[in-house]
Amino acid sequence: MTTYSEVHVRQADSGSGICGACCTSLFGMGIFVSMLGVLGWNEQSSVCSSRALAAAEEAVEAVDCDARPEMNKGSLVHFDCPLARESLPEWTPGSFGIDGAAEAFRVSAVRVTQTVEMLQCKEEVETHKRKQGDKVIETKTYTYTKEWSDREVESNGFKAWSVDDAWQALSRGCGGDFKGNRPFPVRSAQRHAQRLVAGNFDVTRHVGRVAADTPIDFLSSWHGWRFQLGGETATVARSAIYCGCRPEEPDRNQRDRVPQARPGGTEDGLGETPSSPQTPDVMIFSLRRPPEVPTLSP
User: Fold this and answer.
1) Residue range 188-245, pLDDT digits in tens
2) Which of 88, 65, 86 is nearest to 77 (CA)?
3) Where is the composition biased (Basic and acidic residues) (predicted)?
C-alpha cells in the first residue's frame, strides 16, 4: 500500500450537536437566499447580453484593411485583415533559454508557449471524522503517488519525514531512493509579438487571446540530440525535449524505448535499449504555437 493512516480521538464539545444543527439550518437558509439573488442576476445578465448583441449587430460597420483607424474612432467596426510581418516574429528554442538546442526549430508565430512538466512525488491527505458516543474519532490518511505536474510540488513538509510508517508508504509510492522533489531547471513560459497589427489596425491588446495549442515539431536532424540542461542530460524528440522518459508514449509510463546518444540523428534515431530505473525527477517540456500561421500582409 502507498498509504499511511493515523487516528486521533478527542472528547466531543458539550452541546455541539444542538449548536451544529442550528448552525447548519441557518447556513442552509443563507445559501437559499443567496441562490435566489444569483438566479435573478443571471437572468438579468442574460437579457442584457442579448440586447447588447442585437444592438451591436445593427451598429457594426465593415471596413477595409487600409481604412484609417482615426476615422472610425468610437465606432463598432469589423475587419478581416492579414497580420503584418512585424506581428510574426521568429522563435527558436534559444528564445526560451534552451541554448543546447537553440536551432532545433524556427517558427514565425504571434505567440509561442513552453510547457514544462515534471514527474513528482505528491502527498494527498484525507481527513474523516465520526462521532462515537461522547468522542470524536478523526482519521487522517496520507497517500503518496508519482504524478505529472507543471507546478513544483513542495515536499519538505511531507509526513513521511517524521513518521517511519509514512516513510514506508512514500517509498512504495515514490521509490525508496526519493530524497525530495527538485526545483524545475526550466520553467513554463510564453513569448509573444510586441505588436499585433492587422491591416492598419493595432490590435495588440488582443494578443493574449491568440491560442497556442499546436505542437511545434523539431527538425528531424535534431531528433536524438542530447545536451546538458540545468545539470541534466536532455534529449530532443519529435515535438518535445525530455529527460528520462519518452514523451511520445500516451500514458508516459512506458519506458521501453529510450534514445541512443546519437547527436544529429535522423527522425528514426530512437533505438531499442534497456531503460534505466526511473526516479520522480523526470521532466518533459514542449513548445506550442497557434494552429495556423496567418497570411502575411504585403
Assistant:
1) 899 999 999 988 888 898 888 888 888 899 999 999 899 988 777 888 988 888 876 5
2) 65
3) 246-259
245 touches 119 (CB < 8 A)? yes
Could you read off the pLDDT of 48-58 as tens digits, one per residue?
777 766 766 66
Torsion of CA 266, 268, 273, 278, to 10 degrees: 90
Task: Give dist(CA 289, CA 110) in Å, integer.
Answer: 8
Taking CA atoms, 15 is separated from 21, 128, 131, 134, 216, in Å, by 10, 21, 13, 11, 63
* Distance in angstroms between the alpha carbons of the first and the last residue of the chain: 65
CA distance 114 to 91: 11
Residue written as grid cell 514523451 = 247
* Residue whose entry in the numeric block shows the C-alpha cell 442584457: 48
Looking at residue 279, the DSSP 8-state letter turns out to be -
CA-based nearest residue to 213, from 163, 263, 122, 287: 287
The single residue listed with the C-alpha cell 505588436 is: 195
Residue 248, pLDDT > 50, answer no
Q: What angle do CA 149, 154, 160 make, to 5 degrees?
A: 110
Q: Are 60 and 77 in contact (CB under 8 A)?
A: yes
